[in-house]
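Hi C.,

You asked whether I'd gotten around to modeling the 524-residue construct. I have! Everything is below, sequence then structure, no commentary in between.
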Amino acid sequence: MYHYKLQVLILSQDNRIYDAVSALEPLAGFEHELLLRQSADAAVKTADVIVCELSGAVLAELVKNSKPDAAIVFCAEPQTAEQLDAAVYQSLTDLWIRPCTEAFVAFRLHRLFEHIKIIKDCHLAQRYLDTGINSIPSLIWFKDIRGAHLKVNDSFCRAVGKTKADVEGRGHYYIWDMKKEEYEQGEYICLESEEIVLQEKKTCIFDEKVKTKHGMRQFKTYKSPIFDDNEQLIGTVGIAHDVTDLENMGAELEVILRNLPFAVLLTNEAGKIINANDICSQYFTEGKEAMIGQEYQQWKQQNLADMSEINAKGYADAKVLVGRREKNLEIYEKPIFDVFGTAVGMLCMCRDVTVERLLEKKIIYSANTDQLTDLYNRRYFYEYMTRNKIMSKHVNLFYIDLDNFKKINDEYGHQAGDMVLVMVAKLLKQTFGAEFIARVGGDEFLAVVLGSKTDAELAILAERFLSSLQQTIADNAKFAVLSASIGIAVSNALTDVDLLIRQSDSALYEAKRNGKKQYKIYHK
């Protein structure tokens, strides 16, 4: 709120008016500076209010020398008042005919001060309005009921390439350099929108294309009716926000989404899906149109129920049924932040990695598996023992070595030897079931049995394999020399894999030294 010092000059031969002014309480935002003079002096040039009780000649002189916006009150006899020059009459703010009572003086001065305050308030409100609308980058205008522009802001002037003096009081077709016929057709400036606001008598929002000095622009326009004190329509106010670049950005985003080789969807800060590209319709049966507007988390539970995290960077795997084929999708979720760092939505990308995952499985299988026997290999044995939390558990290790295998290779060839290895692998799977089994050498195998086992339980497994091997080769003369020896080592809390292998190897050596075709359990 402003604070104004009102300088009041009283030109009088007595103190009555001065005393009356002194008794008045200043209005809000004002204070009074009172000056009493018996003749006109330099104070005439600075005073805001002049009350003159001197002659008409003095009055004419002070009218000439006073400030342009000074309020001048002349207090005189009726005869003096009648003799005043017409020009002087027009310059007066008020005329008091003597005799004047103190109550009259106080009343008239109070009214004068109220009038001055109204003017100051109006000027301040005008300054607020001008500063406010000129600080806004959007176009703002006020129009009367006929459509003439009464007030516009700086952004409006820049858009039309005209000054406020040239714009105010003029209509659309002049301001926008259009022919009246073109304007009335409403091709580039929506004439109907003005009529809608006047009919609806409420704020309305429109999307309008406008031909400006800077080419065609797209505006989001807010228009409201203006009413007088009697609730009668007297005009409209409009605010036009230039969204051309935003529209272009939206179009560019649509092009990007449409041409990406994977499914993409966007959510808003409330977690609702607001956009999705066409590939979403290929992966998800409901299609992209049905997706928009759904709660993202609910949609994800329904469509990506088996989603599993791959890493901490926002990637996950999920399986979806597309037609009759199952596809692997790699899901990437990333929050979207505005320039202030506030989360305003979520980006979700779904990439078809079915072929990649199949190739990965084949590569992993080839790296971990002995291709001849379809058992695990030595490399994966060590990975299994460490990565799968085998360490520190109760582990029973069976080290199996074929007896006289070299004789079969030498006499019947490597093809026969391969047949033996495949046969042994099959027997090991039958014996040990789902336990870990690996081929770790030419004719050497390992079987890992987890959990606490007695020597008798370990013996049953070893004897079962040895027996099944003898039964299998019994009808094949060329394999008659074949048998197997087994070394078994036990660890109640495994800490050293190589030590366990050495212990099982030691037991295996003892079994072979004692005649082969048998098993031994390592004991310290």
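If it helps when you're writing up: The chain has a mean pLDDT of 88.

Thanks,
B.
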